[in-house]
Amino acid sequence: MTRFAFTGLVLMVAMQRLFELRISNRHVRALRAQGAVEAAAAQMPVMAALHATWLAAMVAEVWILEPLFRPWLAVVSMAAFAGGQTLRLLAMHALGPRWTVRVMTLPEADPVVHGVYRHVRHPNYLGVAIEIASLPLVHGAVWTAAVFSVANACVLTARIRAEEAALNHDNAYAQHFGSRGRFLPAPRGPRVRP
Q: How many Å apart are CA 113 and CA 121, to the nearest integer?
């Protein structure tokens, strides 16, 4: 893959993020009209900066440091990136009009427990983590993949803590999700026949 093609791929991802932001803003307005409240609003600028600099950093690394393009790594990384995209799209589909990039809760509403949420608590964040690690590696931008994976882990730690606290306060989150793993399906015990 040439640097031009990789830059085009990153621009497509950036446009996708902007399109998703428009969807999120529309959902936020509708949710607020229904009485939804926002938690952890101060984290949004940090998340926006993280994603914007991630997109810019991988392009800069490819053009400035000129890492070697390895076809096998590109194929593996694109497959992982597609997996991350799939997880995020499944999460968006399951949440429907309740999907936002902000932490929004509808007091007294049951949390979404269908779709991919039957298996894990945070499929969207898992998808994002996979994307952040894999997309730069399509063209060998290992520094971007490493630095932003660590930065994303730090941001998500605070984000998930705030989100789960808000959901627990407004939506009986622990009651519905206590047995599910955050990022991996919880191991099921042996089935006992009645």
A: 9
